[in-house]
Amino acid sequence: MRMYYKLLVALALSMVLGAVAVPPLMAQDAIPRLTTVEPSSGKVGTEIVVTGENLDKNVVAKLYLTDGTNDIELAITEQAATTIKTKIPAKAQVGERYKLMILTKGKEPKLIEQPVRFEVE
To answer: For the segment 42-71, what is each residue's pLDDT rounded down to a tens digit?
Structure first.
C-alpha cells in the first residue's frame, strides 16, 4: 500500500509541476509533387518547365523521365520551390510518352513517380 501511495504522490507532483514530458511533434519531410509540365510534348533539346510544390534544391536531388523500365536523368538548369527547368536529353526515344520521376534528398532518398507525362516527338 505504501508503494502505491508513493506512486500516486509522484504522479500528482509531476502533473502539477509539468514534469510529464510530452514528446514534440515531429515535422514530416516535405514531399515533392509535380502538377504540370509545359510543353507536354516536344523534340529532343526542348526546354520544359515542370511546376508543382516542394521542388527546392534541399528536397529534390534529381529529375528523371521514366517509361517504367528505363530511367533517363534530366539535367536541371533552374530549380525553385515551385518550378524546375530542364531540357529533353538525346537519350529520350521519339514516340515515347514518359512519366516524370523525382529522387528526393535526405537520410532516406526516395524515387517518386509522378502522374505528369511528356511525349517525345
So the answer is: 999 999 999 999 999 999 999 999 999 999
Residue 91 lies in a domain: yes
32-63 burial code (b ≥16 CB/10 A, e <16) = bebeebeeeebeeeeebebbbebbeeebbebb
pTM: 0.76
Written as one letter, the residue type at 9 is: V
Task: Please report, for the domain that includes residue 115, its CATH number.
Answer: 2.60.40.10
Domain presence at residue 10: no
Q: What are 116's strand-pairing partners?
A: none
